[in-house]
Amino acid sequence: MLAKKLFTLACATGILAWGACFLPPLPIRRPPPPRLDFQGIEVIQVEGTNLSPMHFVDPAELAVAVTKSLNARKNTTGVAAHIPLEGAYHDAVLQITVLGESANPLSTPSSSGTANWTWMVRVAGTLTRRDGVVVWRRTDLLEEVHHPFRGGDETSVRKDPILMNWLSSELGAKIAHEILYGS
Q1: How many domains in the chain?
Q2: Contact residues for 36 (Cβ-Cβ < 8 A; gap 6+)
Q3: Does residue 131 sit within a domain?
Q4: Residue 129 is part of a domain; what is its CATH number?
Q5: Which residue of 7, 27, 42, 170 is surrounded by the most CB atoms within 10 Å?
Q6: At what angle do helices 161-181 and 59-72 cross, to 10 degrees?
Q7: Nearest alpha-carbon partner for 36 in 91, 76, 85
Q8: Whole-Å CA distances, 177 to 59, 60, 181
């Protein structure tokens, strides 16, 4: 009986040792390469404007959010971004324009006063190299962002700086993803 236990223990140890020591290493998973050919662009200046009568999204905050999202992928894409800075070098300008915005509650408020809201934001964007060549353009990109909010109307939504900052961050990440990887 002891011999069977020792034999089983030796086999289990051999299997574990063989599997742990002699298998090939697991593959390194890298994010997919961007679809966009940046055509020599290394530094992008991100500018934002808001032409919507609602003005939920602050264009300066949106530009910062897109900049952060692009810079978070800098090791993969090789492209850095910054907001307009005096004297800062850039190879291209990314102009993001908010064309329209709406905020609507998706549900009736719960007993705590919280309702799910959806923001629909129509955005146009153009990435133009210094020599005037347009590298990327979207004329009517519709982004939809959902988030619970404690408040009953659009006015209270607009006055919440944390929520508006979150909206800009979500929208900026989606725009950066659209630029890099498409729909």
Answers
A1: 1
A2: 135, 136, 179, 180, 182
A3: yes
A4: 3.30.160
A5: 170
A6: 50
A7: 76
A8: 18, 19, 6
